[in-house]
Amino acid sequence: MTITEKILAKASGRDRVSPEDVVFAKVDKVMLHDVSGPGVMTVFKELEKKGRKIEKLWDPSRVWVAEDHFVPAVDQLAAENIVMVQNFVNRFGIKKHFKYGLGQYGICHTISHEEALVLPGEVYVGGDSHTNTTGAVGAFATGMGHTDVAYVLLNGKIWFKVPKTILFKLEGELPSYLMAKDLILKIIGDHGTDVGNYMAMQFAGSAISKMPMEERFTLTNMTTEAGAKNGIIEPDQKTIGYVKEKTDATFTPVVGDKDAEYTDIHTYEVGKLEPIVAKPYSPANISTARELSNVPIDKAYIGSCTGAKYNDLLEAARIIKGKKAKVRMEVLPAAQSIYMRALKEGLINIFMEAGAVIGPPTCGACCGAHMGVLAKDEVCVSTTNRNFPGRMGHVESKTYLASPKVVAASAITGKITDPRDIR
Amino acid sequence: MRGTAHKYEQNNIDTDVIIPGPYLKIMDPNELAKHAMEGLDKEFVKKVKQDDFVVAGENFGCGSSREHAPIALKHAGISAVLALSFARIFYRNSVDGAHLLPIEIDRDAYENISDKDQLEIDVSKGEVRNITKNRTYKMKPFPELIAKIIAAGGLLNYAP
Question: Which candidate, A31, A339, B6, B78, has a CA 20 to 30 Å from the CA of B34?
Answer without folding.
Answer: A31
